[in-house]
Amino acid sequence: MKKLLIINGSPRKKGCDARVCDEISALASKYGYESETVWAYDLQIGGCRACMACKSTQRCVQKDGMNEILDKIRTSDMLIFATPVYFNGETGPMKTFLDRMYPLMRMNPDRTVESFIGNVKKAAIVVCCGAPDGNMKYASIVTKFINVLKMFNVTDVSGAVIPSGNPDTVLESSFCKGCLSQIEFQLQME
Ligand SMILES: Cc1cc2nc3c(=O)[nH]c(=O)nc-3n(C[C@H](O)[C@H](O)[C@H](O)COP(=O)(O)O)c2cc1C
Fold first, then answer.
1. The pLDDT of residue 107
2. What's the CATH code of the domain at 122?
3. Neighbour count for residue 165 (Cβ, 10 Å)
4. DSSP string, 15-83
5. Which domain holds residue 29?
6. How many angstroms separate the alpha carbon of residue 184 from the centre of ligand 1?
């Protein structure tokens, strides 16, 4: 089976991001994926120390479980990054998670980038927010994740901001429907 890894940056296990990700998991199983969720808030990971040891080993020196998660990333076929907007950005634990993905890339002396992200070919970014015009205001958050993933040579990346703030109605939002249909398209493609 193909593997879908969801990294959820919300503290709310039944929040908007979680609801959208549940739908993504259901779609994924339709297309032969098994999914697993990593909750950034549940990890006991510290910030990147910029020691650069990972540039030669592709492992992190911190013994806090992140290497095991990097292994899960490397063996996934598709990644989902889901995060609420907290004051114009992703949540703190999601930012820490992103920084700790540093072992998955190496910058060579000639400034070329090598990717060690393994099987991952596709990714999607889900950004839930409260502001009704969040799709305009927070598009830059999606772009930032897309740019990070491009450095890892993951080029089939979709992303959407979903204004709602209400887990009971988020799935009815046209932004959510658009986001899910893009992801379904990605899941269908080989
Ligand atoms: C600390 C904090 C900061 C927030 N900042 C913003 C913000 O800047 N813009 C916005 O539209 N919503 C903001 N929100 C609302 C959340 O983004 C929104 O409720 C989102 O749907 C929560 O996602 P979740 O249900 O997956 O946790 C904030 C919420 C919290 C708790």
1. 87
2. 3.40.50.360
3. 17
4. SHHHHHHHHHHHHHHHTTEEEEEEEGGG----------THHHHSS-S--SSHHHHHHHHHT-SEEEEEE
5. 2-188
6. 26
Q: Is 183 helix (H, G, I), strand (E, B) or coil?
A: helix
> What's the predicted TM-score (pTM) here?
0.98
Q: Tokens standing for 125? A: 């970014």
Q: DSSP 3-state assignment of 184?
A: helix
Token pair of 56, please? Answer: 């030669």
CA of 107 to the centre of ligand 1 (A): 34
Count of structural domains within the chain: 1
Residue 85: other Cβ atoms inside 10 A: 21
Question: Which residues are CB-neighbours of 89 under 8 A, at least 6 positions away?
Answer: 95, 141
* Banded model confidence at residue 190, pLDDT cuts 50, 70, 90: confident
Place of tokens 């990097």: 70
Residue of 17, 22, 86 best suited for mutating to test ligand 1, as the one with most atoms within 8 Å of CB: 86
The residues near 86 (Cβ < 8 Å, ≥ 6 apart) are 92
pLDDT tens digit sequence for 65-95: 999 999 999 999 999 999 999 999 999 999 9
